[in-house]
Design brief:
Largest sheet: none
Oligomer: single chain
Number of helices: 4
Radius of gyration: 13 Å
Distance between the termini: 27 Å
Shape: globular
């Protein structure tokens, strides 16, 4: 397996959140899929919601990659 294949198979921080934070990720998925708010505002609100569940923040770059996958249909709703 090449380095590129290993990186592609790695789970994102949004895919490994604890069960308590799953509704927050589902909310973010719905917001990204419906394109209801700007991504900058969305990540800010998501990180606030995750902090309430004692989960670390999601990076902007990680969230952007995840959001692009959601919009392209490559990522299913958690």
């Amino acid at each position: 397996m090449s380095k590129r294949e290993r990186i592609r198979n790695r789970l994102s921080s949004l895919e490994i959140v604890p069960d308590a934070a799953l509704p927050d990720v589902q909310w973010a998925f719905d917001m990204v899929a419906s394109n209801r708010m700007q991504q900058v505002d969305l990540i800010e609100q998501l990180n606030e919601r995750l902090a309430k569940n004692e989960v670390g923040p999601v990076s902007r770059s990680g969230f952007n990659r995840w959001a692009q996958g959601v919009r392209a249909g490559h990522i299913r709703r958690p």
